[in-house]
């Protein structure tokens, strides 16, 4: 639990009881996984589960062995997709300490998603404490190699057995962890993206909430992108099919030759990325002319052709900062700059990663040391 030396973590709202793991992974098996973790395929030994029921609120928090959860087949999450999630990473710093990056921002966004999906709010300190306890229990699972980290996946599901359509009266909050290497298997210097004719989010919908349903709807367009040999799918706005919104799970930035950096505004149909927000802050510090404004696909193509667009990159916790080299729509495509990583992209990525990994000062207090 939070100790006296913690200035950033207040006493937890809820104490997690501990269940010992009867048979944790052997050191050899763990080392084999950590040597080549990939993304999202291997999991640590523990998980956190906290229950919520109407009238009682959050209770019965446990940190124990990771394993299957029992759900009634009528549980509303299985029928009406009442589910939200988060994604953040734990890093080992050069001094051996373990750090999280802006976990309070994930906790706040989790509650914003919960509100949109008619789910109960979780006290932010409980969210952060649950993540922290899991990382400490599984600290041996944080990969050591360059660029690797422990990816944390907090999520909430509706568990009430009821087929009527209304918000459920019981939920589970769960946190699992997965050692993570590079998000993009190819390791290519820049990704290629496919502009989908499908829509991800409409005004008034759930585009700004981090909910599984948004991802379910993106799987067909993502498969289409993969089939055509691209790495990611890009969505335009629902109303005019003209304005660039975001990728399936990453926000986008455009760097122009006049020193301006453009990213689509948080209009309610875009996920408010914490990486996006951090990069906006750093770019403003660099004196770039940062603009949160709409950017059309036609402008994008024209700016790439004229050379006015120097760089484009996508960002998110999983893949951090990833240059976009090529864009395809229908039968045509275009290349941005040299088609490879640009200088600004590389510099912003390096600055962000250095703060996250503790090799540069943290002027904004984004890093939370947990052990
Ligand atoms: C999570 C997510 C992002 C990136 O958010 P970060 O906080 O930077 O990880 C962007 N778009 C979508 C749709 C997302 O789900």
Automatic annotation (TrEMBL):
The keyword Acyltransferase belongs to this UniProt entry's keyword annotation: no
Entry superkingdom: Bacteria
Pathway in which the depicted protein is active: Amino-acid biosynthesis; L-isoleucine biosynthesis; L-isoleucine from 2-oxobutanoate: step 4/4; Amino-acid biosynthesis; L-valine biosynthesis; L-valine from pyruvate: step 4/4; Amino-acid biosynthesis; L-leucine biosynthesis; L-leucine from 3-methyl-2-oxobutanoate: step 4/4
Swiss-Prot/TrEMBL keywords: Amino-acid biosynthesis, Aminotransferase, Branched-chain amino acid biosynthesis, Pyridoxal phosphate, Transferase
Pfam short name (any one): Aminotran_4
Transferase as UniProt keyword: yes
Recorded GO MF terms: branched-chain-amino-acid transaminase activity
PANTHER family in UniProt: BRANCHED-CHAIN-AMINO-ACID AMINOTRANSFERASE, SUBGROUP IIII AMINOTRANSFERASE
Family note: Belongs to the class-IV pyridoxal-phosphate-dependent aminotransferase family.
Protein's name in the database: Branched-chain-amino-acid aminotransferase
Organism of provenance: Novosphingobium ovatum
